[in-house]
Amino acid sequence: MAYEQIIYEVADGVATITLNRPEKLNAFTGTMMHEMIAAFDAVDADDDVRCVIVTGAGRAFCAGADLSAGAKTFDYDNRTDRPEKGGGTKTLSYEMEEARDGGGRLTLRIFECLKPVIAAINGPAVGVGSTMTLPMDIRLASDSARMGFVFARRGIVPEAASSYFLPRVVGISQALEWCYSGRVFDAAEAQAGGLVKEVVPGDRLLARAHAIAREIADNTAPVSVALTRQMLWRGLGYAHPMDAHKVDSRAILSRGRSGDAKEGVTSFLEKRTPVYPDRVSSHMPDFVPWWEEQVYS
Length: 297
Known about the structure:
- The chain is built from 11 helices and 9 strands.
- By secondary structure, it is of the alpha/beta class.
- A hairpin with a 2-residue loop joins β1 and β2.
């Protein structure tokens, strides 16, 4: 696929998605949403991809929604330049596909991803620039990064399913304070609040992200990682630990029969690097999906 607003690259088992509107501080558009979703589709379809890094071109990660439409920015009934929202030709109702929040469409796709996702937040990341990182697994920030859930200051509300993700990442009290105030805060506060794992100098950010990706890609079984990602994320919604126990038991039983488990034990005993035979595209267990697929309505 030819991309206009992102760069998609794969090297040594690591895919890098770079938001690429540096002259606009990588402000989020409908085109960027569709291209990022397509990139995550490519990630899941490629067994050679073991991990994903998302970052921004230039001095910003993502400055939030593109506000160039002015007062009409979030008024989709009157946005003639947004064909995916009806192009101003019809009044949207809540249940319509066109009424879906674009940030949420992206974060739900990231949530479904079968590969680990690392956010390398290289600069300002506000609004959807912050919320798009929430379903990513590990967030790293440069020491110049600034983040903010600024929605109340724009007369709207948190989007991108962040009312689900943010309290689970940082806790309800911290999530509410950041969203109530809408203020922008620095990387040190983001780390103290549990939003980012590490703060590193900007010139070392991508190297640190790649080091984490390499640790995963070089030492772990792809199917086990794909299962683990879904088990932990989906487990956040379980009503009782028995729900997790059922999934754990099925996963251990199926994985224990696999060539990966034999290779994992043998390589450990032989003190060598494992070469796992199973592939995500063809060796996921037959009990997957164990969750009910959700639809927008």
